[in-house]
Amino acid sequence: MTTPEELKQYVRDVPDYPQKGIIFRDITPLLGDRRIFAEVVGLMSKAWAARPPDLVAAIEARGFIPGSAIAVKLGCGFVPIRKTGKLPWTTVMESYELEYGTDSLEVHSDAIQPGQSVLIVDDVLATGGTASAAVRLMRKLGADVVGVQVLIELGYLEGRKRLQDVKLVSEIVY
Ligand code: AMP
């Protein structure tokens, strides 16, 4: 078993990317190590394995990487949550505030049937704006959101406060 502190050795901190003052948490070293990637997929599946949801819904783009692997591990279907204009069919949209302006997430309107249980997955929880918009988007379609699973939580940005009405699990906290 690799401890959370050891897992941090596989996350590259990139200062001032994509803009000055941001430390980007680059997970590509972790993904590139077959033993660590498999272990992380196992860790991110653990809290949900006793009662697997119907679907895993992951957030574009880096959420797709652990998200689809978790879906296979748990025996669930997979739903992509994408940025505006990327999905080909009829969509439902949810907007959220950024530091400057707003951004939106979309999902196909038939991706979830009312009452289906859904686990939301992303790589990093920062301010929580993206994940909380994903929760609202899933609920718009009548989903029963069982929780949010992220690999990395940036505790100093207090994103957890925006997700108080849902179970949130993270593996590595900064
Ligand atoms: P937020 O809405 O502020 O919680 O931002 C979360 C989204 O932005 C996730 O989809 C992350 O992939 C990405 N993100 C935000 N901050 C970082 C960071 N410091 N390093 C890597 N990804 C980040």
3D architecture notes:
- This protein is α/β, with parallel strands linked by helices and 174 residues long.
- The protein has a single domain (50-173), classed as 3-Layer(aba) Sandwich (Rossmann fold).
- Helices cover 25% and strands 34% of the residues.
- It contains five helices and nine strands; from the N terminus they run αββααβαββββαββ.
- Strands 5-6-4-3-7-8-9 form a seven-stranded mixed beta sheet, with helices on both faces. Strands 1-2 form a two-stranded antiparallel ribbon.
- The longest helix is centred in the first third of the chain and has 13 residues, at 34-46.
- The two termini are 20 Å apart.
- The mean pLDDT is 97.
- The structure holds adenosine monophosphate.
- Residues 22-25, 59, 62, 122-131, 159 line the site of adenosine monophosphate (AMP).
Question: Nutshell version of this structure?
Answer:
With 174 residues, this protein is of the alpha/beta class.
